[in-house]
Amino acid sequence: MPPSQYKDALIAVAKLYYYGNMKQSSIAELTGLSRPKVSRMLQDARNKKIVQINIVTPESHYQNLEKKLCEELGLLKAVIVPTELTPEKTKRSVCRAAAEQFSQVVRDGARVGITWGTTTSGIIEYIPRRKWSGVGVYQLCAGVSAHQLFLDGHETTKQLAEALSGKPHVLNAPFVVNGKLMKQLLLEEPEIRNHFSMLEALDVAVVGLGSSDPAQSITYLADYISLEESRELTESGCAADVCGYRLRENGELADIPLNDRIISIEPETLKKLPLVLAVASGEEKALSILAAARGGYINSIVADEIAAIAVLKKLGV
Question: Which of 157, 234, 253, 254 is deepest in the core (most CB within 10 A)?
Fold first, then answer.
């Protein structure tokens, strides 16, 4: 292995261990290395002063991650930020970077879509306040949860519209309905049908990605499915999640009843949009990043380095 490539490998393993709080056995499983090899690399990282009080990371490390993600996943752009010492600090860094990217692509008269969730709602506070003109903001995923603000699709849409001096377009429907027939009937309602037709003309969509941890699934946290159901989905290979729809690791939409009950922008509509910016942090988002990109549902991403490293290791890179 070339010296530069080995150095990147040492950095990746160290980040997963110290910042990602992963066990050596978990790192070995993720990377395909043996556990003793992981242990030796961690020691080598310390010997080479890569691991000190802080992990020394050259700027080229992030650039390499961004380049590899774009090449391997066919993305238009990837922005990778340093992983911080706590998940909350990391998420704030990701939100700040995503707000910067978003602000660079929004134009007067733009039609913007946004999902609800902890990360997407966190972006809004970092968007610079200036006067955009004629911007429309559209709720991508139905559902309102008053007891948790980050799950309130109406509120997230309204807050983004306020930040952009634009007009909010909310979606008045539950996120998950009882069955396929109920979904079909709701989508025939004039107000909802018109909303979904407007989603086909979006210029930018900002989406969060689901966690592979059943207990952190938004569908579970919003009380639409039980923890047991969430675990069953994960165990059956349907852990990846974009806009509420469960995906297989290869990017295919899973043939499961839950996907027929979701009131959210259709996956095929996402594929046709010019810019779908995914925002994610943490190793538990790696599977959703991988599946969403493989399926063509996202074409740009802002993530932290642990998420990026985990994706590339799953790809064998």
Answer: 157
